[in-house]
Amino acid sequence: MEDKSIPELISQKIIKMIKDSNLKVDDKLPNEKELMELFKVSRNSLREALKILSSRNIIYIKQGSGTYVAEQTGISEDPLGLLFIKDRKKLVKDILDLRYILEPEIASLAAQNASPAQVEELEEILAKMEKQIKKKNDFLEYDQEFHGLIAKMTQNIIIAKLIPILNETIKVFSQEALTTEYENTLVSHEKLFNAIKDKKSNDAKEIMTYHILFNKERFSKERSDEF
């Protein structure tokens, strides 16, 4: 067995330990000394293994505090590498095409399966978003939270794993659009919330479809001379 494979093997053992111990997000792992004794490895090999896990967003390390289980375990903030795509205009067009395919169905499923607690949480996010919009302030964070929670509302574990991708696509669109649409965004999100709250899945699907198509048309008009 080559030495270079040891950190990878240790990282796999740590993943198994996290699963077997049923550790949750923000739960603390044993300290370095305990992990070294548990896996009978050197400090250097262990630290390399922890770097591997950190790069994969399985754990995060707080200096002076310890090692913890990461949120959205195993999924990076930019899993598709959108940051490195040079043709940003084509990227946004393709992002909106993807969202047009996925998000109306996600909204429909969310309306069917959302729990009362999730509906209440969505309303709170919408209220924060409304405050930002009315002040003409940046509302990206709450927009991402809004769409991310809708994905969770489906109660589908695979769709929930798409949240980092959805968040990154929303971020890219926000960065590349030449203007910010405040009024229409607020109205469409309010309508979408009400449809989900009232469990009107067809309405939720139609509203999300309109929301994506509106942004597609807006972006196309802004960049009409570039396509």
TrEMBL record:
Keyword field: DNA-binding, Transcription, Transcription regulation
Domain (HTH gntR-type): residue spans on this chain: 4-72
Domain of life of the source: Bacteria
SMART domains listed in its UniProt record: FCD, HTH_GNTR
MF annotations from Gene Ontology: DNA binding
A Pfam family it matches: GntR
The keyword DNA-binding is annotated on this UniProt entry: yes
UniProt-listed PANTHER family: TRANSCRIPTIONAL REGULATOR, GNTR FAMILY, UXU OPERON TRANSCRIPTIONAL REGULATOR
Name this protein carries in UniProt: DNA-binding FadR family transcriptional regulator
